[in-house]
Amino acid sequence: MNLKGRHLIDPGDFSLLELESIFRLAEKIIENKDEYSQICKEKILGTLFYEPSTRTRLSFEAAMLRMGGKVLGFSDANVSSAAKGENIADTIRVLSAYADVVVIRHPKEGAPRLASKYSNIPVINGGDGGHQHPTQTLTDLLTIKKLKGSISGNTVGFCGDLKFGRTVHSLIKTLSRYPDNKFILVSPEELRLPDHLRHMLKNIAQVEIIETEDLETVIGSLDILYMTRIQKERFFNEADYVRLKDSYILTRNKLSEAKEDMLVMHPLPRVNEISYDVDEDDRAAYFKQAEFGVYARMALIAAQLGVGNNA
Ligand code: NCD
To answer: How high is the mean pLDDT of the chain?
Structure first.
């Protein structure tokens, strides 16, 4: 499997076998961290974050540092030359000379893809608008594989902002490529999954989807519940956000109806869609998920740089 030099803009850029090779490498790293602690010794990761992020950026930085590499970049477009009007094509051309691999988060959908056309180094999409978030998908799939045993054959509930949530868009598209997954989509009418994705799931992937506004009636049938934050920054008006922001709040009480081994996942940050009393429940997987995110990103970077044993 050769992922050396490849961009990751959309999870569909990698075949299932290529994804599998990343998970295998991530698992090897988890089992034997010391062996991988210097594999990026002479390498630099560039981080171009044009949109706020804590987890994704720090998780990438931790990934690179844990492999002995270095990191440079910015976490606020206002302090970069973007504020002077520099376009992303020029920025990436220059960065290609400074770093060996780059992660870009951008509010505009398609910006990382555009950047990849001008880049001499592998570009990773760290989230583009409401579009895609492929490294969160790697994180989510690794979490499912480790905690559920298989990425196939699960009934997965997605709950919350399915319209603007890019983590949902990337994950559902990718899960639909694995056999025997079923999806239950729980959202208010206004925040339903976009038409193009619903069409893809029904007509192209031909997977079963059920849509509902009511979490309680379906929670008992789920193997995985993927909760999401209502994406405030993507709303056009504050009143709509205020009306919809507390549509779903998962409490310990609601979990009593769920299977004993259901996983509660969340890409984080949580606002108040999962109450704190759920954190103590064995089914709460979101902090472990954040931890797996570092290993998934280590494996991705190592594979793109062609370092370490990623066969
Ligand atoms: C997600 C994102 O940025 O899309 N967070 C993340 O990557 N950890 C989810 C979110 O912001 O709600």
So the answer is: 94
Mean pLDDT of 259-267: 98
Amino acid, res. 232: K
Distance 130 CA to ligand 1 centre (A): 10
Residue 175 to residue 153: CA distance in whole angstroms: 10
Please answer whether residues 5 and 306 qualify as being in contact, where contact means their C-beta atoms are separated by less than 8 angstroms.
Answer: yes
Mutation pick for ligand 1 pocket among 50, 54, 56, 169 (CB with most ligand atoms within 8 Å): 56
223: Cβ contacts below 8 Å, ≥ 6 apart:
148, 154, 155, 156, 259, 261, 262, 263
How high is the pLDDT of residue 311?
41
Instruction: Read off the pLDDT of residues 56-65 as tens digits, 9 standing for 90 and up.
Output: 999 999 999 9
162-185 pLDDT tens trace: 999 999 999 999 999 999 999 999
**CATH 3.40.50.1370 intervals, the chain:** 11-132+292-305, 134-290
Assigned fold of 134-290: Rossmann fold (3.40.50)
**Residue 268 beta carbon below 6 angstroms from any ligand 1 atom:** yes
Do residues 219 and 264 touch, judged by C-beta distance below 8 A?
Answer: no
The Å distance, Cα 269 to ligand 1 centre, comes to 6
Q: 11-132+292-305, which class in CATH?
A: alpha beta
| Distance (Å) from CA 311 to ligand 1 centroid | 30
- Cβ of 167 closer than 6 Å to ligand 1, yes or no, is yes
Please state the rounded mean pLDDT for residues 138-159: 98
pTM, rounded to two decimals: 0.95
Which tokens sit at 77?
């477009």
**Mutational test site, ligand 1, from 109, 125, 133, max ligand atoms within 8 Å of CB:** 133
Structure confidence at residue 1 (pLDDT): 66
d(CA 311, CA 180): 27
Give the containing element (helix H, strand E) for 217: helix 215-218
